[in-house]
Specification:
The structure holds 2 protein chains of 2 kinds. By secondary structure, chain A is an alpha+beta fold. Chain A is built from 4 helices and 21 strands. In chain A, a hairpin with a 7-residue loop joins strand 14 and strand 15. The chains are: A alpha+beta, B alpha+beta.
């Protein structure tokens, strides 16, 4: 068994995996890594199955001391990781020696980093997943964010190979200007031509009260629709338009049913980018059709899994 | 959006996409009953459709969520139709739950009395007389949305939502009543509290209550509340 001790859990570090499926009928959100692309890449870089649990850090990752040798990889937003004070690179596998301290700082673009450790973290599954669901206080490490003094352990794995190098064109890239591709939502047709144009031409700001449940947008508000909505199913990526005219993007810890018009949905291939949105980002939307969205999904899958 | 008809539970449904990996199905009739939705969810659940990972019931629609991209809605509808053919659509009698409530632990009696123009005792009487259906569980794990509230005691949500509502709080939100399964923020008018818990992540499934189940309330005293609460924890 390998282990590490949390010296400082940073702003919000939780255990996340590929998500909790099969319980949304009971109101349990799917949870899982907000940036699914960086998350799977991290696991791939250490030779793990792509859906094993990892550490998801938000804005500032904190400090951790390893009590054993390990192979690790970091992906996602650049929190300027250091080992014993020396800069280290993202998107590559690294060997850690027992006693090493890995530390993080604030990131400038994006907001979430992933730390994968070769092997299987010793985290008990709750309802079929290791993901932390903070509101429900279950999953992950005691249903909460990591804090000073916590000890995480893992079973070291043998066998599967570690990729020597992942081509740079597969590294995720984050910017303070983001365009997300969207599909029409079930209530898109409720918008007038003017409202549609307004939605597609507005440069939105990301509100600081965004979190794992939802990303709230600011900017010129869109005139709300006159139609009354009966609560209907929502999924991560669904864009709702509440009465104040400021869209909300439902994310991984979001509810299963919502009462605001679902005007659009972030294309699955761009959902990971939405998971990195933070205050200060200028966000625009571009509408694509289903065919394009499906092609993008297939392309992304190839990018992540091809040798 | 592309739309094609689907037959399920003696009703025609329209099918559309909810993103790349999910379908949204809606009965093609004016009066959609919760029973039709819940019975149909059961049928979908029992149909073992390949790749289905979640089924979300709502008031007038159902989402079917897959672990794969749905390239052709037409062929997905054919797969669904075939799966449903082998499942009987006979009605199951819904499970009934009795929920004990201590009304003395309500937090918003003054507001509810003022709004309805009725006295607490009368409001409690009406609340106890109702037979409720679990409409859905959304918003939070195990949050019970109950339909069937007598409109005389309907009450708008609070202007300023509470940041902390205790576990088991029983509230009125518009024309619905409901139970907060977890401590959370919320805007419903709280008229009582149940000592029972309707969500336990350590159990699978995490709750015995399902959408479509029947609920009645039973009045208990404060003493009984704390006795039962101790037993629960």
């Amino acid at each position: 068994m390998g282990s590490l001790e949390v010296l400082d859990g940073g702003l919000l570090t939780t255990i996340q995996d590929g998500g909790r499926f099969g319980y949304r009928q009971y109101g349990v959100p799917v949870s899982g890594a907000m940036d699914d692309y960086a998350y799977r890449l991290a696991n791939q870089l250490v030779g793990n199955a792509s859906d094993l649990p990892v550490l998801e850090m938000t804005l500032n990752g904190g400090r951790y001391r390893f009590n054993s040798d390990a192979v690790i990889a970091m992906t996602g937003a650049d929190m300027h990781p250091k080992i014993n004070g020396e800069d280290i690179s993202l998107n590559t596998s690294l060997e850690i020696k027992s006693g090493d301290v890995i530390s993080f700082d604030y990131c400038q673009t994006g907001c979430r980093s992933y730390l994968a450790i070769r092997g299987q973290l010793d985290i008990k599954e709750v309802l079929g997943s290791c993901s932390t669901y903070l509101t429900g206080k279950f999953g992950g490490f005691e249903g909460r964010a990591l804090r000073e003094g916590d000890v995480l352990s893992w079973t070291e794995s043998e066998g599967s190979s570690i990729p020597e190098r992942v081509p740079e064109d597969r590294f995720p890239y984050y910017s303070s200007k983001v365009e997300l591709r969207i599909l029409e939502g079930p209530e898109w047709s409720w918008l007038s031509q003017h409202q549609k144009e307004q939605f597609l031409n507005t440069e939105f700001d990301v509100s600081p009260d965004s979190n794992r449940m939802g990303i709230r947008l600011k900017g010129d508000s869109i005139k709300p629709t006159d139609h009354q909505m009966v609560s209907g199913p929502v999924i991560p990526g669904t864009i709702q338009l509440p009465e104040n005219g400021r869209p909300i993007i439902i994310m991984k810890d979001g509810q299963a049913v919502g009462g605001y018009p679902r005007i659009a949905k972030i294309a699955d291939a761009d959902l990971w980018r939405a998971g990195q949105l933070w205050s200060g980002v200028q966000l625009t939307f571009r509408k694509i059709n289903r065919e394009e969205a499906n092609k993008l999904s297939a392309f992304q899958k190839n990018l992540l899994y091809s040798e | 959006m592309k739309s094609k008809l689907l037959q399920l539970n003696n009703c025609s449904w329209s099918v559309s996409a909810l993103g790349e990996q999910a379908l949204l199905i809606k009965p093609k009739q004016d009066d959609v009953s919760l029973q039709l939705i819940h019975e149909s969810c059961r049928i979908i659940g029992e149909s073992s459709i390949p790749g289905v990972v979640d089924i979300i019931p709502a008031y007038e629609s159902i989402a079917i969520i897959y672990d794969r991209v749905l390239n052709d809605l037409g062929s997905e509808i054919d797969i669904l139709s075939n799966a449903f053919r082998h499942i009987s659509a006979e009605n199951h009698s819904p499970q009934k739950h009795v929920i004990p409530v201590c009304y003395e632990l309500g937090l918003d009696w003054e507001e509810v009395e003022n709004y309805t123009g009725m006295e607490k005792a009368r409001i409690i009487q009406i609340h106890l007389a109702g037979a409720y259906t679990v409409a859905m569980m959304g918003f939070l794990p195990g949050f019970l949305y109950l339909s069937g509230l007598n409109e005389e005691i309907a009450c708008p949500r609070k202007q300023e939502p509470r940041s902390r509502i205790p576990t088991g709080a029983v509230g009125i939100g518009g024309k619905q009543t409901g139970v907060y399964s977890l401590e959370s923020p919320g805007g419903w008018q709280i008229i009582g509290r149940t000592p029972l818990s309707f969500f336990d992540a350590r159990k699978d499934p995490p709750t015995e209550v399902r959408a479509g189940n029947q609920v009645v309330f039973e009045r208990i005293t404060e003493k009984e509340f704390f006795k039962l609460k101790d037993r629960e924890t």
